[in-house]
User: What shape does this take?
Amino acid sequence: MKLDSQVTAVITGGASGLGAATARQLASHGVKVALFDLNEAQGEALAQELGGIFCKVDVTSEEQVDAGFAKARAALGQERILVNCAGTGNAIKTASRDKATGEIRSFPTANFDRIIQINLVGTFRCIAKSAAGMLTLTPQEDGERGVIINTASVAAQDGQMGQASYSASKAGIVGMTLPIARDLMGDGIRVNTILPGIFNTPLLQAAPDNVKAALAATVPFPKRLGEPPEYAHLAETLITNRYLNGECIRIDGAIRMAPR
Ligand code: NAD
Assistant: This one.
C-alpha cells in the first residue's frame, strides 16, 4: 500500500508506546490517523499534534469499538489500515504456595479471562469490524483494499513464568493470523502480526536503570532494548510491501526468553 494523505489508519493503543510510534510514523507520510485508546489525555494530545483524531475506546466493549469506528470514519473516511497495539498483561503463577504463610493459591480464572478479553478478543473485534468497513473500499494496485497489523509478543512462543494468560492471548493472535488472512484474501486485505521482544515503552521507562540494563544485557545483538520507532518501521514495511501476507514476524534482537 502506498502511504499518503488519501489513506486513513486506525491505531488501537495509539496513545502510548508502540502504537504512538506507529501513529507518528504513518502521519509522517501524510496518513490520517485515528487513535483508539483508554488514555484520553495522552490520546487527545497526540491526535492534535498529528492532525488526527482521538476516540476513547475500550477494545473489550462492542459498543465503544462500534462508536470509535463510526467517529473515525465520519471524520477521516473509511480506514485502509488497522494497527492493533492495545494490550496489557499480568504476572500470576498457575498454582503457587505463599512462602510466608504456606497458603496455596490457583490462578484466578477471572484474571486469566481479562487478559484474553483485552489482547485476543479485543484484537479480533477490531479486525472483524475494520475488515467489514474495508470491504466497501475501491481496490488499489494489485487489488489491495486494506492492511491489518496485529501485535503479539515473543511471549507467544517463549512465555515466562507467570505469563500463562498473556502468552495464551498472544499465541491466539499468532494462531488466528493465517486463517484471517485467508478469510480476507478474496477481498484484497492483508493481515500480518508482529512479535516484539523487549521494547523501551512507558511500561519499562518507569523501571530503575539497573533493571533496564539487566534486561538489555539478555539481548544477543544489539545489546539494548528495542526502541518504539523500530517497531513502527517494521509496521510500515508490513503495510507497504504488498507481498507480505499471513506472516508473524519477531523483532527482538534474537532474544529467547528464559523461564523467568
Ligand atoms: P503501552 O502501555 O505503552 O501502550 C499500550 C496502550 O494500550 C496504552 O495506551 C493503553 O491505554 C492501551 N490499552 C490498554 N488496554 C486497552 C483497552 N482495553 N482498550 C483500549 N486501549 C487499551 O504498551 P506498549 O509497550 O506500547 O505495548 C503495545 C502492545 O505491544 C501491547 O499489546 C503489548 O502487549 C505489546 N508488546 C509490548 C512489548 C514491550 O516490550 N513493550 C513487548 C511485546 C509485546
